[in-house]
Amino acid sequence: MPNFSPSQEHQIRQAVCQAGQKAVQLAAQRFQISQKGPDDFVTSVDQTLDRQLTAQFANWFPEDGVISEENSASRKEFDGGANRLWLIDPLDGTDDFIQGKPDYAVMVGLLQDHQPVAGWVYLPAQDQLYFGGCGWGLFQSSHDTAPHELSPREPAKPASNFCPLLIGYKDERNYGTVIHQVIPEAQFHSLGSFGYKVMEVIQGRAGLYLYLNGRVKLWDTTGPVALAQAAGLVCCDLDGQPIKFTAEFVEPNTLAHKQPILIGWPHYIESLQPRLAEAVALATA
Length: 285
Description:
single chain; five-stranded mixed beta sheet; D-Maltodextrin-Binding Protein, domain 2; 7 helices; 285 residues; 14 strands; alpha+beta; globular; seven-stranded mixed beta sheet; 2 domains
């Protein structure tokens, strides 16, 4: 288990679930929407939950760095010298939240020495919390039930009539046609939240999740990658190299990953990674 106490772990679970339940309540009210950049929106709900969670984690872990999506000043903590960094995404899947869809999540991840070691992904619409990490395990609970162990479910191997993949809406628009040309058996599915999609792979409802458009940030990935690695999934780029969380692999101003991301079961990565690389090369030629 990572280096925090059982009481602190209980506090984290409560905080993440409470933030998610608050998101459900605020979704039923009028909230403000503003634009941070091209196709990048933020709501007053994101900002409220961001302040709430940031204050809690800063109070609980004063010697650690706390980085949150909606506090751009907090990004300086990435190079601040702390060997532990808490990454907070108050609403992962804001576009879906704005549209009234249920596919959003509240997420927290812990980087220790630039390695993802623990994660919490809460799906408010389902009232399901997934959490854990390498050397700790995988667990599931709701806001008012005790945790129980979560067993990863490996899907059947990819075949000519079975190859379920998760892909984002933008990536399917940009790369879907050429991926189907190279991998005709591919069956695309999509959901809003990065963390939600990773949990679908862990639970065997897809064999692989690919993310290609270069906008995903550390607060999107740290928690889900920690859970994926604990489940035995492979987290790599199109060249098969592990996803890195060190400074040379991250854009310094935005904390966006420079690597494209594949998260999948080993037999899906082995079978599809070279062909996905070929498809992306064709699409970008």
